[in-house]
Amino acid sequence: MSAYSDLAARFSRAAAISNAIGILHWDHAAMMPKGAAASRSESVALLAVLRHEMVTDPEIGDLIGEAEAADGLGEWERANLREIRRAYTIDTALPADLVAASSKATSVCEMTWRQARADSDFAALLPSLSEVLSLQRQAGEAKAEKLGLSVYDALLNDYEPGGRSAKIDALFDDLADFLPGFTEEALAVQARRPQDPPLEGPFPVETQRALGVRLMAALGYDFERGRLDVSTHPFCGGADNDVRITTRYDEADFTSALMGVLHETGHALYEQGRPAGFMGQPVGSARGMSVHESQSLLIEMQACRSREFLDFAAPIMRDAFGGSGPAWETEALWRRYTRVSRGFIRVDADEVTYPAHVILRYRLERAMIAGDLPLAELPTAWNEGMRELLGVMPPNDRVGCLQDIHWPSGGWGYFPTYTLGAMTAAQLFAAAKSANPDMLPAIARGDFGPLVAWLRANVHGLGSLYETDELLTRATGSPLDASHFKAHLKRRYVDEG
């Protein structure tokens, strides 16, 4: 037990450094003045190197072997030891100078991206993004050699432990075949709906924020351990027991920011519900990003775009903005929140067209990592992909290849987890409704207790106790099955439409 205790103590200290980095990243996105970028990048890089040195200490390898040979570990401790070995194997693949260089490069690139996005100027981003890509490729090559994987799968493994592009290819190719015809069908059903008048703004930011806070509280978000702020790109971040979310507001349209808040609240509920007894240990962490994205999409798409949610929320929305008339009726708001359209922006996309946005990014990042797509050609490849998959052509790079922060911030291999998460969300929500037939009626009453309790028991509170397939099988009876997602889309956009 002494070897295990030593390991647990070391990884607890490493988690404390990760928490500090998390808060600095949040501040970087939400509060930091531009002039602090250089010194901030140095600080974060130093912390990243200190953490890396801590978790790659050669003594850790010996301690892992000693702990694995010992008797007396419980289920959670054995799982923690498994996750410690996983983390140690990955972290020891990277030299400290590469960790430092990557941290500095992404800090610089993120700040450059903010201005380049505002100016729709991909050329301004190209030098710093080229450096990030080069360093990501180096990291992927080092991990691939250690893990026996392809370079892309080694990067994907950071976000989706055990995930493989061969499996994703099969799932995404199936969706790419299914979605165009289904989109046409959904649009045809939508065309037969009544034409709803527009919601007349403006919608003051403070009123939007107050509405978001009220619905976050209804969902069960703990404001004693988190906060809501504004950033260029909405996200959930922070630290253990300090789970912060952001959104962005548009005074002409409150619906986008509100759903952004609900989406990030889904992430935050997962973070706030992780096992308290193993907080700071690898086994206490969230089980990969497809599961994490499933929690945000389960709340936003499955629950909060349902008719039952609008039964509860529509009167609150009307009261908040003093709305009246046909556009504010519950059914009209439901139609607005389930409207299908081919658009340019991923984060504003409906759940029918959203997978096409993800498939595009997945295919492009694989090509760039492999060296098959020169980075300078990304805008052209992006626009052609949008035309092919969605039938639209972005008018500029701001609403094209510059819209996401993921590549500038080093998130190569992240994008496929969004659609894996959407499929996982549909499967989990179906299981939750089956387990408790009062789930949807409770949401209609504004009671999210049954849903959150089921998620706490089957997802949040389990951390990384189980591998992803086992977690999903225990919760739903089977590993990931795209049929649940397809059935959900058909039910909402065709049968109920």
From TrEMBL:
Pfam families: Peptidase_M32. It comes from the Bacteria. GO terms for molecular function: carboxypeptidase activity. Keywords: Carboxypeptidase, Hydrolase, Metal-binding, Metalloprotease, Protease. InterPro entries: Peptidase_M32_Taq. Belongs to the peptidase M32 family. This is Metal-dependent carboxypeptidase. The lineage of its organism: Bacteria, Pseudomonadati, Pseudomonadota, Alphaproteobacteria, Hyphomicrobiales.
